[in-house]
Write a structure and sequence with these properties.
The protein is mainly α. 46% of the residues lie in helices and 8% in strands.
Length: 631
């Protein structure tokens, strides 16, 4: 069903609800009411019937219950986002998903002890996560990295040469080229001279200056890889032509990175593209892939100009142009206009950039190149927030993100043993000491909030279950803190690093605390599955885990049949006197703070609540704590 039809149906549906609520007569009763959808008009055969998208029986909604209404509206927002996602509107769908989750969070601030909201929040987050995984498999999704203009797109509006060129200019350039060594053949003709004029005195001057300055970051790395792959070092100026050395460059044709790989070609040369990363934007890996691709094209065509033309327009197009015209070189193809205009301009453009790049002062350029970026790589096989890493190794997060342009989100990919994070040279040891042993509960800590009209720091803190102090510290807001509409705030959600005093207190008590439930021996008994039961619900009731239930009953799925008898744990036999306490999370609390309060450890709390996901905690969550004799 198209998005327009879906939106039309959504509007009609809400109109029907309002009509039912506002029609004359007695107000609706307090009990749950079942909403019947309005009759659907006859639809032409070429339009997918709207009725197919409407459930036969809508969920019960108590319109006098604000929690019911919030859950219902959040579900509709999610479904709208799901439709946008399926239609390919990825960023708009992300906004709808966030809107659905934000609505539940806002309602939780008012009704903090309402379990329906907690259940709905977990359900929505789980469904969004499932779609993220699907996006990962497709190599698509929403990105937190910004994209930049690709220099190659500028050629679209450059006139095809030859133009009227001063003959003396050709002689001057030929003499200057002889003074400088090149490992690409440099032909001087009117097309090349036209581009020289374009960069010296035309609209291209600003673009080439930006590229020449940025090139300094990557030139040593690029030349090393080109040399290792056995291709001309002058091919670095192909990178100048493609992106002006911008790793985040994205062209109109969806080519990406410094070397402007389209998705399929990138995958062909080993550049991974998932929901989490896009190695086309990895300067080093994409340079290696580009060198190998160019080497393969030279092997196919035996000529560097034809190889570069094939890099731009594809080898099949160049091969067909050669066969159609009987030509054996690029310049003949250009004269016969057998290639696209962009490709005809592509080779003289690279040659002009090479001539200027090898001798910039001669052509009036006095650009100071950026210093080389010296880096090293570390493996990160667990999802870890870049902000957590930056804080742990004392590196500005902007610098870390700039070095990792291939990382599309604030978080590194989960369960990816091949992923490598780029760090400044000399930071690997510090990273290994600070991050490698970091528990998962502390690796992903933040959400983002865009400040809206009427927002206050206190209101934002209440909404996310944090404190104004943590918000101020995380965002370096200063004193007094000032918020601006449209400003993006980092919101600590859980696991915020405790103060040194808290860490000392926790270390002093954790060694005395059992790291597992005090039950050391478990008796098994029988339980009959009832309607509405789930393994998680049964595990929680009998103070055990889903994995143990599956093991005792040889289950390979979580699906249960009503009436089935399961082996479950009976009353645990205690060998250590212990008291079970259910702690309800308060605003601003973290697992560290709770552990300190009960003189236990975060690991112990996680082990006692194995059936729950405590990676992010919210006000109202219920956490099981076991208190030993010493407490």
């Amino acid at each position: 069903m198209s998005s327009k039809i879906r939106q039309a149906w959504s509007g009609a549906f809400f109109a029907a609800i309002l009509l039912l609520l506002t029609s004359c007569g007695a107000p609706p009763p307090a009990r749950a009411v079942r909403v019947v959808p309005p009759s659907i008009p006859k639809i032409e055969q070429h339009v997918e019937p709207l009725i197919a998208a409407v459930p036969a029986v809508l969920p019960q909604v108590n319109f006098n219950d604000p929690v019911d209404l919030a859950v219902f509206e959040a579900q509709l927002r999610f479904e709208k986002g799901e439709g946008l996602y399926k239609d390919g509107f990825l960023k708009r769908s992300k906004d709808e998903f966030n809107s659905a989750i934000d609505l539940i969070l806002e309602t939780t601030g008012t009704y903090q002890k309402e379990p329906r909201l907690q259940h709905e929040l977990l359900d929505l987050v789980g469904r969004v996560h499932a779609m993220e995984l699907a996006a990962l498999r497709e190599g698509d999704g929403f990105t937190d990295q910004t994209e930049e203009h690709a220099a190659i797109d500028d050629l679209e509006h450059v006139e095809t040469f030859p133009a009227l060129i001063d003959p003396k200019l050709k002689e001057t350039v030929e003499d200057e080229v002889k003074e400088v060594a090149h490992d690409l053949p440099i032909e001087i003709n009117d097309r090349v001279l036209g581009f020289l004029e374009y960069y010296q005195n035309g609209r291209g001057r600003g673009a080439i200056e930006v590229g020449m300055e940025r090139a300094g970051k990557y030139q040593p790395m690029i030349e090393r890889i080109l040399k290792e792959e056995g291709v001309p070092l002058d091919l670095i100026y192909l990178c100048q032509a493609e992106s002006a050395f911008e790793p985040r460059a994205l062209s109109r044709a969806a080519a990406k990175g410094m070397w402007q790989f389209i998705s399929s070609r990138g995958k062909e040369y080993g550049l991974r593209q998932t929901w989490w990363i896009d190695e086309r934007s990895d300067p080093e890996k994409s340079t290696r892939a580009a060198a190998r691709h160019l080497k393969d094209l030279y092997t196919e065509f035996g000529d560097w100009y034809l190889a570069m033309a094939a890099y731009n327009s594809g080898p099949l197009r160049v091969q067909r142009a050669l066969e159609k015209t009987g030509a054996d070189n690029f310049w003949t193809l250009a004269e016969k206009k057998a290639l696209p205009k962009e490709t005809i301009n592509y080779i003289p453009n690279i040659l002009a950039l090479t001539i200027i790049g090898k001798n910039p002062e001669k052509y009036g350029f006095n650009v100071v190149s950026a210093p080389p970026v010296e880096t090293e790589r570390v493996s990160v096989d667990k999802a870890t927030d870049l902000r957590v890493i930056a804080e742990a190794i004392d590196l500005p997060v902007e610098q870390l993100q700039a070095l990792n342009t291939h990382v599309l989100r604030w978080t590194t990919p989960p369960d990816d043993p091949d992923f490598q994070l780029v760090l400044p040279r000399g930071y690997a040891d510090k990273f290994n000491k600070q991050i490698s042993s970091l528990p998962e509960s502390k690796r992903v800590l933040f959400r983002e909030h865009v400040v809206r009209k009427g927002d206050t720091l206190a209101a934002i803190a209440r909404k996310y279950g944090t404190t104004t102090t943590q918000l101020t510290d995380a965002n370096k807001l200063g004193k007094p803190p000032v918020l601006k509409i449209g400003q993006t705030l980092i919101v600590p959600m859980s696991g915020v690093t405790p103060s040194p005093a808290v860490q000392t207190a926790k270390a002093a008590t954790s060694s005395k605390t059992p790291t597992k439930s005090p039950a050391t021996r478990t008796a098994l008994t029988s339980y009959t599955v009832r309607a509405g039961d789930t393994l998680a619900k049964i595990a929680a009731h009998f103070n055990t885990t889903v994995d143990k239930l599956k093991s005792w009953n040889h289950l390979t799925t979580t699906k249960l049949a009503v009436g089935r008898k399961l082996l479950v744990s009976g009353q645990p036999v205690q060998t250590v006197a212990a008291k079970k306490v259910i702690h309800q999370v308060k605003q601003g609390e973290t697992l560290d703070r709770i552990a300190t309060t009960y003189k236990t450890s975060v690991d112990a709390i996680i082990s006692w609540n194995e059936s729950e996901d405590l990676s992010v905690i919210h006000p109202g969550d219920r956490i099981t704590i076991f208190l030993g004799d010493e407490n």
